[in-house]
Specification:
Layout: E1 4-6, E2 11-12, E3 27-31, E4 34-36, E5 41-43, E6 46-48, E7 58-61, E8 66-73, E9 76-78, E10 83-84, E11 87-90, E12 93-100, E13 103-106, E14 109-111, E15 114-117, E16 120-127, E17 136-139, E18 142-144, E19 147-150, E20 153-160, E21 165-166, E22 169-170, E23 174-177, E24 180-187, E25 201-203, H1 205-209, E26 218-219, E27 229-230
Parallel strand pairs: 1-4, 2-5, 3-7, 4-8, 5-8, 6-9, 7-11, 8-12, 9-13, 10-14, 11-15, 12-16, 13-17, 14-18, 15-19, 16-20, 19-23, 20-24, 24-25
Antiparallel strand pairs: 21-22, 26-27
Amino acid sequence: MPREFIQENDIDFSKYNGGNNINTSLVTGEFNGSYNAQGRGIFSLKLKTDEIGKIGIFESIGGKASVSNLRVVSPSISGNGDLGVITAVNKGKIKGVVIEKPTLTGTARMGSVCGYNKGDIVDVYTIDYGTNEEASFSGGTEIGGITGQNDGRLMRVLYIAKAPKISNTDFPITYFNKGKMEDVYFLSASGYNELHNNIGIAKTTSEFSGIDTINWYEWSEAVSPYPYPFITGIRPPQNFPVAN
């Protein structure tokens, strides 16, 4: 039977290792268990390696494994292979995850969730609620806001941040899609405010506010003038970015 892991408290990495970089994935090799963070968070994680190889919280997630109900705030991931905040390569299921203000630097496939997706990414969103709505991506060969390459399934996914760019083209969801996409949305901004099979469905903030429900979204009246979607039990920040 796969081992089950539960996160019982928030983890703030600014208080560990002097807030310095960790030079490997937190979980090395292929993870084949179940990790349920129960809505808890991981804060200020810095992973950086000069070695060639995969890097993320989980180096890779196996076909029968799952990671769920996790909030990751201000992560910084840097490496010389496939990389992502949750994992470099996902073959299992990532569900109910929120990533806020990610910074990624790499040389291969990378995305805020994972570099290469061969499994399921469901009920997940990435948000940057700074002044310019900027998540930070640099380097890389195949860069997507969610995943560099999708050969699996993206379902009920939302990206609210500035999209990574390659050759003056924005890729808010994935650079290369060979898989399935369903209810995949991103916040519209200059340069990518139209429907593309490989990108997803663009919505302006006002358009989001005019929709009563989009499947998995629950709408909050706490933020004026725009309500915002959130995953049940994991509430995003109070400052919702505004795009024209």
